[in-house]
Amino acid sequence: MSFIKKHYEKILLGAVLFGLFAVLLYLPFRISQDRQNLRDIVSGIIRTKGKPLPPLDMSALDDALTRVQSSFDLEDSFEKTNRLFNPMQWQRTPDGRWIENRTGKEIGPDAVRVTKIVPLYYILRLESVEPATSFSPARYVVSIEQQDAPIAPERRPRRHYLSVGEHDAALSLISVTGPADNPQVVVQVIASGDQVSLTMKKPYSTVTGHAADLFYPPENKHWYDQRVGAMINLDRNDYKVVVIEQNEVVLFAQTNQRKTTLQYQP
């Protein structure tokens, strides 16, 4: 015990040195083990087979490719459905209704409908014969009916009393042949110079114009028997009928000088 007390420092130092010597002997084995562990880790990473990747989802790209390959009419889409670049106009009628003006032809002259077109005739008729007397030769009553006259009273038949060789402002009686009760007369129209033949049963007629009936749905307006030169009012604007043909009517706007052709489809 006394030995230990005298030499405990040496004994403690010897124990420490022995421990250090043991650690030095253990270090090579430890280093070798760590190196092997590192080699195993590296080898495991390099040689490990990864899991197969899931198949790529190409549906979005396929849809985009399909849209690119298919044609798309932007003009048609903007015209029919777009309301930013092509806002609709709404027109209020006198009775308070609202009309959607989608194409620009629901109101105004383009919306006028031609419901009827009839021909207008220039007609000459041999109506009667006044027999000759001892004081005067036979007189022939020839009527003129001008259906396209601008004034209504002038459209009624007007009678002209003529003997052979006589004339007035409208007609000249050239000749008369045949029996007295059914003669054939030849008259000359002064305005045109044309000569035509008439009998009691066979008048002369030719088309000199047309009349039309018009209808405007937005205001529920009707115009009957309209002739060239007639004026109609649409949406507080005046339009003049400038042409009436067999299958069309032309309106002339007084505000902007624009012509609108309306087709007639019986």
Question: Would you mind describing this structure in some detail?
Answer:
With 266 residues, the protein is an alpha+beta fold. The chain has three domains: 69-107, no CATH class; 110-116 and 209-263, no CATH class; 119-207. It is 24% helix and 37% strand. It has helices spanning 2-47, 59-69, 74-80; strands spanning 89-92, 98-101, 113-130, 139-146, 158-162, 171-177, 184-189, 195-198, 204-216, 221-226, 231-234, 237-244, 248-253, 259-263. The chain has a five-stranded antiparallel beta sheet with strand order 5-4-3-9-10, with no helix packed on it. A hairpin with a 6-residue loop joins β6 and β7. The longest helix has 46 residues, at 2-47. The mean pLDDT is 84.
Gross morphology? rod-shaped
Radius of gyration: 56 Å
Alpha plus pi helix count? 3
Characterize the main sheet: 5 strands, antiparallel
- What is the beta-strand fraction? 35-45%
Quickly count the domains: 3
Number of strands: 14
* Class of secondary structure makeup: alpha+beta
| Amount of helix | 10-25%
| N-C termini distance | 144 Å
**Mean of pLDDT:** 84
Strand adjacency order, main sheet: 5-4-3-9-10
- Low-confidence stretches at least 5 residues in length (pLDDT < 50)? none
Order of helical and strand elements: HHHEEEEEEEEEEEEEE
